[in-house]
Amino acid sequence: MRLLLLLSALTLIFFPQFVSSEDEYSFDLDEIEKKPYSFGGYIEARSVFFGFDRDAALYKLKMFNRDEGKTAEEYNAALQLDGSYEKGMARFYMKINADIQQSYTGWSDNTSIFEGYLSLKPSHSISIEAGKKTLKWGKGYAWTPVAFVDRTKNPDDPDLALEGFTVLSADYIRSYSGALKTVSLTPVLIPVYDDLNEDFGEANHLNFAGKLYLLLYDTDIDFMVLTGGSKSTRYGFDFSRNISPNLEIHGEFAFINNFEKKFINSSGELFKRKFNAKSYLLGTRYLTVHDMTIIFEYYHNGTGYTDDEIEDYFSFIDSSHKTFTATGNKTLLQKALNLMEGNYGRVNPMRDYLYVRVSQKEPFEILYFTPSVTGIINLNDDSFSLSPELLYTGITNLEMRLKTSFLTGQRNSEYGEKLNDYRAELRVRYYF
Asked: Which residues touch 296 (CB under 8 Å, ≥6 apart)?
C-alpha cells in the first residue's frame, strides 16, 4: 500500500495532465527555438520474486540468523531526474536518483546525486568539467576492465545508470584529414578524502587518470592510465571497429600493477598477495538481416579467484555455519562477511567468463515487442545464469519488462552457491 501511495503521489506531482478531463492543443513558434534548459527522467515500479537456495553457502552466510522460507518478494519504486542549463560557453548538468524498497530485510530508501557537474567550453577544441560524473571509459558491453574511474557494471543489467565520482577533467580534440582523423586527450584529477570519493580507494590521495583517443583507419582506439595512491597504478587499451555495417568487434586490455588480493583458506587463515594482474576482454556485436542482435564477449579477470580459492571460501562458510548452529557463536561468519566487500562479493569474482545475449526485434511482426535471452557462463567451474526477457514499448514513453533468471551450478561453484536459485522481475518505467 505504501508503494502504491508513493507512485500515486509522484504521478500527481510530475504528470498532472493525467488527471485533467480536457485535452488542450496549442502551437507556439517559440517551442521550435532551442531552449537553454532541458529536463527529463523516469518513474519506475519494480517487483521481484526470489526462490532461495537454502543449502547454498551464501544463503547460510547472509541468512544465518533469519528464516525467510523458500521464497521472498521485493517491491521497489524509483524516480530519476536529469536536467541541464546552458548559457554561453557554460553548461550545468545534474542527474538525481531516488528509490524506496520493501524486502525481507524491511524498508529502505536512498537518494543520490549520480552526476552533477559544470562544463565550460571556451573553444570547439577545449572543454573543462568539474563535479560528479561518469566517464564511461571502455568498449565492453557487459564488462569494462579499463573503466578505471567508473564504478563496476552489473553484467546482468549493464545498461543501468551508475553513480559517478567527483573529478576535474578536460578534453582537447583535434581533427585531421588522412588515416588519422581525430585525436583527443582527456586528463582527469580524482581527489580522495574522508568525505570526498571515499569509496574510490585509499583516502588522502590526489589521483591522476588520463585517456588518449585516436580515430585511426576508421578504428576507435583508447590508451588509459590511472595512478596516485588510492589504487595501484594501472594501464589500459581498448579498440572498436565496424568490420561491416552489421558487424562490430571490440576489445580491452588492462594491466594492474601490484594488485593486492585477500583470500582465506578452509581453516579461516587470512592471506594477502601482491602481483601484477592482466585483465582483458574480446567481444563482437552482430545484427542479422532479420533484426536479430547477437552480443558475444569473453572476459578474463586477472584479479579474480581461482577454483581452489573460491572452494576454500565456501568451505569456510560451511564450517562457520556449523559452529554457529552448534554454539551460537557468529564470529567466524562475521569474518566471512567482512571478506565479501571488495573481495569475494565482487560481481563475477573468478577468472574467466563468457557473455552471450540474443535479442529479436518485433518477431512475427509483433510491433514494439523485443524478446531476448542472456547467458553468463563461468568457464572455470561451468556454473552459469540464464535470463529470458520480454520487453514491450507500444505505449508512448512507457516501457514494460518481464525478466527471469535461473542460476545453475554444482556445490562450491559461483552460481551454485548464490543466495537464490531463480528470480522473476517485472519492471514498469515511464519516461518524461
From this structure: 283, 284, 285, 286, 354, 355, 356
Nearest to 377 by CA among 296, 286, 293: 296
Set of cell numbers at residue 328: 551460537
Which runs of E-coded beta strand occur in 219-319? Answer: 219-227, 234-244, 247-264, 270-287, 292-300
Strands (E), 193-246: 205-216, 219-227, 234-244
> Residue for cell digits 562457520?
320
Query: pLDDT tens-digit profile of 89-119?
Result: 999 999 999 999 999 888 999 999 999 999 9
Cα separation, 190 vs 139, in Å, equals: 22
- Are 240 and 139 spatial neighbours (Cβ–Cβ below 8 Å)? yes
pLDDT band (50, 70, 90) for residue 413: very high
Could you give the CA distance from residue 351 to residue 399 in angstroms, rounded to a whole number? 35
Instruction: Evaluate if residue 8 carries a pLDDT over 80.
Output: no
pLDDT digits (tens, 9 = 90+) for 341-378: 889 999 899 999 999 999 999 999 999 999 999 999 99
Please tell me the distance from the alpha carbon of residue 420 to that of residue 321, in angstroms, as a whole number.
18
The residues near 370 (Cβ < 8 Å, ≥ 6 apart) are 359, 360, 361, 362, 390, 391, 392, 393
Percentage helix, strand, coil, to 5, in the chain? 15, 50, 30
- CB-based contacts of 2, cutoff 8 Å, min separation 6: 102, 107
- Kindly state the cell numbers that stand for 341: 566487500
Are 146 and 224 a contacting pair, CB within 8 Å? yes
Give the angle 160-399-288 at the CA atoms, nearest 5°.
Answer: 80
Distance CA(264)–CA(150), nearest Å, equals 28
Rounded-to-integer distance, Cα 410 and Cα 28, Å: 64
Burial of 430 (0-12, 13-18, 19+ CB in 10 A): buried
Record the pTM.
0.89
In this predicted structure, the answer to whether residue 22 has a pLDDT above a threshold of 70 is no
What angle, rounded to 10 degrees, do the helices at 307-327 and 331-338 form?
150
106-120 and 165-175 as β-strands: parallel, antiparallel, unpaired?
unpaired
Task: Identify the CA nearest to 132 among candidates 53, 62, 199.
Answer: 199
CA angle 341, 345, 349 (to 5 degrees): 130
Contacts of 48 (CB under 8 A, 6+ apart): 73, 74, 75, 76, 423, 424, 425
Q: Which three cell numbers stand for residue 10?
A: 509522484
Contacts of 63 (CB under 8 A, 6+ apart): 52, 419
